[in-house]
Amino acid sequence: MKTFLILGAGTGGTMMANKLAKRLDPKEWKIILVDRDVTHYYQPGFLFLPFGYYKPEDIFKSKGKFVPSGVEFVVSDIELIDPEASKVTLLKDKRVICYDQLLIATGTDIHPEEIEGMMDAGWRKNIFDFYTFEGAMALNGFLKNFNGGRVVLNIAEMPIKCPVAPLEFMYLADYYFTQRGIRNKVELVYTTPLSGAFTKPTASKMLGDVMEKKHIHTEADFNIMEVDSGKNLLKSYDGREIEYDLLVTVPTNMGSDVIKRSGMGDVLNYVPTNKQTLRSEKYENVWVVGDASNIPASKAGSVVHYAAETLIENILSAIEGKPLTAAFDGHSTCHIVSGFQKSLLIDFSYEVEPLPGLYPFPVVGPFPLLKESWFNYLGKLSFKWIYWNIMLRGIPFPLPPSYSIAGKKRIELA
Amino acid sequence: MAVKTIAGKEVQVNEEGYMTNPAEWTKEIAVEIAKEEGIAELTPEHWKIIEFCREAASSSGAVPTLRAITSGSGVSTKDLFALFPKGPAKKVARIAGLGKPEGCV
Q1: Strand partners, A339
Q2: CB atoms within 10 A of CB A389
Q3: CB neighbours of A30 closer than 8 A, spacing ≥ 6?
Q4: Range of the domain at B12
Q5: A157: which chain B residues are within 8 Å (Cβ-Cβ)?
Q6: What residues contact residue A4 under an 8 Å CB cut-off, 6+ apart?
Q7: What distance in Å separates the CA atoms of residue A166 and residue A217, rounded to the nearest whole number?
Q8: Nearest-CA neighbor of A170 among A212, A125, A141?
Q9: Which chain B residues have a beta carbon less than 8 Å from that of A159?
């Protein structure tokens, strides 16, 4: 009996456990899935919690519900991965699991302590994150009693999980304060280390235009040096200082500590991974899915979903001793909620930046790209159901996983 | 993709002005691009970072991000900003004839 070990039962690990359980022969393979906790959060929902648009109970379920039968689910921290010896030591009972194939799906977490002063007296008083359940809920409590002032959002450094989430936060804040009738008493400031609203030029221009339309000020090329929570001041390395009444931080994102302890990560604890095969650059029986890898694609659930199609084929080829023929193209599809029951959609890959047009089909769409629409918003709302019922269970969509240029238009930027 | 003449040499550049072939780079080109980026003179401290980035890029295949430069070269973020004001990682990458750092995805 051979062992297929999966570390992490988040979006990637759960999805792959379902795919592997369907494709591996149970007489030959035992699949073990390890995670440190039992609650699966629908992470796109964190964005809506601060504004009360989702209730906490809307966004979590038990991880066990999504573990296919025949797969052993172990709840434990991971002490160490020893890829040279193909074994993993768990914290619980110091259990040692020897594996034939390993899939790392340990994700990424925020590290506010990386920024000087971030976790001083102001932390969770008037400084909040929304990338954790606790942070998003604490921010919800603060916003209920907030009646005006300057709201500053800061992105500490790239890459971050869901690179459009900070933009969505600003768009939704504009909507939320408008609904409460206090938009004229709130100043919205977006500070980013990027040179514009987004990472790629066309989307940056078009999303930046939406920012302007909503009277959200963008402070670009802002590299945070420290937070002075005594004076409510944000300072950049180039000497800029911005006062805030509420600071919403998107802190440094880093891979799991176990990756660091095991000496398997880069400077941000992400595992060096071949961006096409999704196999570890160093170990032939180690695979990486989702945010844990260093591939230059967005850290997002849609990327995991598309990558999983490549990954399952390559894993099966490797097990059968065949060459790896499936190649991931970096395909990513992201909703950008813009408030007022509207949303934008972007679709891109390693090679092609987000462009305007129609998705998924030319001419008929039905979803317009890089444009606010009510139809896109319906798509976004229905996505929660799709996530729980189709994506996590590893069921393929009736849409091709590969990126397609059809229906997209290149435009001249002024 | 376009061809641009820098320091008397024709080189390939992308739409954001980054060179696309590190092999076409010369020290003279670095001096010219540095001027475009508002750095009048490249000191030995500048060259140390430029060379670190070229070596890191050729050995790993990835253009180093700000964090990779500080942890790999031992130069603090604050000093880097003094040497290459505003966006050091992007600036050094351009001056060193490399692509835009891939941290920005």
Answers
A1: A342
A2: 10
A3: A1, A2, A3, A4, A72
A4: 2-104
A5: 65-67, 103
A6: A20, A24, A29, A30, A31, A32, A99, A100, A101, A103
A7: 13
A8: A212
A9: 103-105
Is the pLDDT at B105 greater than 80, yes or no?
A: no
Residue among A193, A195, A297 minimizing CB distance to B105: A297
* Cα gap A332→A161, rounded to integer Å: 13
> What's the predicted TM-score (pTM) here?
0.92
The DSSP string of B11-69 is EEE-TTS-BS-GGG--HHHHHHHHHHTT-----HHHHHHHHHHHHHHHHHSSPPPHHHH
Give me the amino acid identity at A319.
Answer: I
Which of A204, A222, A267, A353 is the best residue to mutate to test the B interface, defined by the most B CB atoms within 10 Å of its own CB? A267
Containing A207, the helix (H) or strand (E) segment is helix A201-213
Quote the CA–CA distance of B63 and A294 in Å, as a whole number: 13
pLDDT in tens, A197-219: 888 888 999 999 999 999 999 99
Domains of chain A listed by start with CATH number: 2-109+254-319 (3.50.50.60), 111-252 (3.50.50.60)
| Domain total of chain B | 1
Among A394, A396, A398, A282, residue whose Cα is nearest residue A31: A394
Q: Are A34 and A71 in contact (CB under 8 A)?
A: no
Structure confidence at residue A332 as a pLDDT band (50, 70, 90): very high
B70: domain CATH number is 1.10.10.370
* B55/A222 Cα distance (integer angstroms): 27
Residue A220 touches chain B, beta carbons under 8 Å: no
Of the two residues B14 and A97, the one the predictor is more confident about is A97
Which residues does chain B have within 8 Å of residue A194's beta carbon, measured at their own beta carbons? 104
Tokens 């302007």 locate to: A212
- Please tell me whether the peptide bond between A159 and the residue prior to it is cis, using omega within 30 degrees of 0: yes
Give catalytic status of residue B104 as yes or no. yes
Nearest residue of chain A to residue B82 (CA atoms): A238
Q: Count Cβ neighbours within 10 Å for each residue of A282-317 and write b for 16 or more, e otherwise.
A: eeebbbbbbbbbbbebbbbbbbbbbbbbbbbbbbbe
> Length of chain A, please?
414
Q: How far is CA B45 from CA A358, B58, B80, B82, B83, in A?
A: 49, 20, 9, 11, 8
ipTM of the complex: 0.79
